[in-house]
Amino acid sequence: MLSEASYHNMTVGRIPSVEGGIQPTLLTTKGDIIVATGNATLVRQGVGANGTVLTANSAQADGVEWAAIPAAASGLTYITGASFSAASSVSLPNSTFTSTYQNYMMKLTLTGVSANSQMCYRMRAGGTDTSSAIYYWSLTGFAINNTAFTNAGLSETSMKPHNLTATADYDVGDIAIYQPQTTQITRIVAVGGFASNGGTVGVSTGAGFTPNTTQYDAMTFFPSSGTITGSYKVYGIANS
What we know:
This protein is mostly beta strands. The chain is built from one helix and 17 strands.
C-alpha cells in the first residue's frame, strides 16, 4: 500500500515500478515482441524485415529469428546425369530408381546421331538388362517436308518410342518412367522434337511398357543402329 505522502508525491501519468512486472520501455519499435532467453529472463526481439516470418532457431540466443518465407518444394529432385559420345548404348547407374520415388523423369539431349534409326529402351535390374521379348510400344510423329509416321511393336526386346534422324541436331525432350520399382506394369512416355540446320523440323510422341513385374532400378537406351552423342539427366518426381 502506498502511504498518503507517497501518493501525493506521485507525478501525474506515471505508474510506479512493480516488482516482477515488464517495463514498457523494453519495447522500442513498432512490431517488437518480447521473448525469453531462459527461465524468467525476457528480452526484446526486434521486428523483422517486411515479408519475413518468425522462426524457431535454437542456435539463436533468444531461440527465434526472423527469416524469409521458405520457397515451395520442387516437384523434381535431381538424381544423376552424364554425357556420352559416339555411344552404341548408355546405361543409367544401378539404383537410379529406388523406392523413394514412384515415378521419374529423364531429360535426354542428343547433339549427334550417326544413322537414321529408332531410340530403344530396356529396363534394367541388378546391373542386367531385361532383353526378352516382353516390350510393347507405339509411336506417332511428323517432320516438315516429310510424311507423317506411325509405328508400333508387340512382344519385342525393347521399346522404341521415337525416331532418330542422322542429319538432325536433337533435343529429344522428356522421357517419363512410371513405377519402375513397384510390382506393377512399368511404362515410359517419350515426348520430344528434332531440328537440323538443313531445315528438317519435327516432333514425335510415343509410349511403351512391359507387363513384367520386376522391380527395375535402372534403364538402358540405345539407337537401333549407329551411335549417339549427348547427355541425360534423371529426376525423381515428388510422390503425390
